[in-house]
Amino acid sequence: MPKWILLCLFFSNTSGFAGEETDTEEMEADAEKTYNATYSEELSRLETQLFAKYERNRRPVKNQSVPIDVQLHFHVIHATVDEKVGTMNFNGHLYMTWRDEFLGWDPLKYNGVKQFNTKKWSIWTPQLRAHNSASGAASSWDISKIAHVLINSKGENAAQVEVYPSMSMKVTCDFDFTDFPDDIQECTVRVFSFDRLNLVNLRFYGNLPASLSLGWGDQASKNKIGNWQFLGSKNVIEYYDAGNYSTVMPPAERWQNAWAVLRTTFKVKRHAALFGAIFKLPSYLFIYVVAIVCLLPNIRQALLLSASMFGIQTLFLHDFVMKVPSTAGQLPSCLKYYQFAMQYNGLMMIYHFALLWGPPAVIPPFLATKELITKNYHENLKDRILGLASAFRSHLALFTLIIHHLSWLILVL
């Protein structure tokens, strides 16, 4: 067969294949366009029919005598602790979901549409508020009025509604700084619905604790903000009835006078990495300085060292107190030790000042207690008392080491 005939056959087949591929691409593009157009039309038709007779002020249950169950979950993306005023700020999202019996549809009748998004003000939503909000009149906006709403079909008789409003709550806390700077604090967020228990029953979603996402990517496991480390949270459902809180649901006949309150308690621990270097170590070294005061043979030198230490303590007292959080309860343990150390050093200063008016004592061997008591170093009673007091300085040094070590271990360490 001539070569030119073969070439003609080859190019004719190639042109045919190219034409077929072009036709296939055009058909697929038309099919996608047709599908998208059909989906949009079906979605519009679905929304029109669902909301034609929908009443957003009516609870979405066909039997109005039963309460609707609303599940909540806290998702915190940022939080701060204000220890001066006793509050915590939480920012994030409040996930809510419930079953709406007036928004059901059959997906097969609407080209397979199983879910769609809508506006929050188009449907019924629970009216929630933070019970212990510290925002005052602005507490109405602790939970955003604008949110993403996702509606999932559960058949012709119901749909599952999911809402993700953002939240920015400032709540009051009851802090106790007795163990500063190793204190662990708890702060509780209480959320309730304006509707009573016979209308709305609040529950935690899957009994899951609040989720915490303080960082992204490599910092996904971040649990520290500022000087605080988040240790976790716990959930408790309370019921408010006749002025009392209880974790036991009241009987059905009391529901019209009761409310469900969701209580989420966050636990945080202070992270003061430098406190050991700026307080614990200097306070420990101070123990030996006070003991050295009692061992110096020259009373004037001992008095001068004691007065210098008292001046240094007074100088740093203001800065230290300003950094310690104010509390309505007991003083922090570290501040108690600082107070004890200053008082003890003041007594030591007075003690050595009194010794200046007495004769110099002949100090016996260390801890020679019997010799101190029985031997008369001076004929004059006053001189003898002052002499004994001066001679007992070695014993006082040992007592200082013991009492300060015990106080430091109990109150500081």
Automatic annotation (TrEMBL):
Gene3D superfamilies: Neurotransmitter-gated ion-channel ligand-binding domain. One of its GO terms (molecular function) is transmembrane signaling receptor activity. It is a multi-pass membrane protein. GO terms for cellular component: membrane. This is Neurotransmitter-gated ion-channel ligand-binding domain-containing protein. It comes from Mesorhabditis spiculigera. It holds the Pfam family Neur_chan_LBD. Residues 1-16 form the signal peptide. Keywords: Membrane, Signal, Transmembrane, Transmembrane helix. Residues 45-195 form the Neurotransmitter-gated ion-channel ligand-binding domain. The keyword Calcium does not apply. Its main location: membrane. It is found in: Membrane.
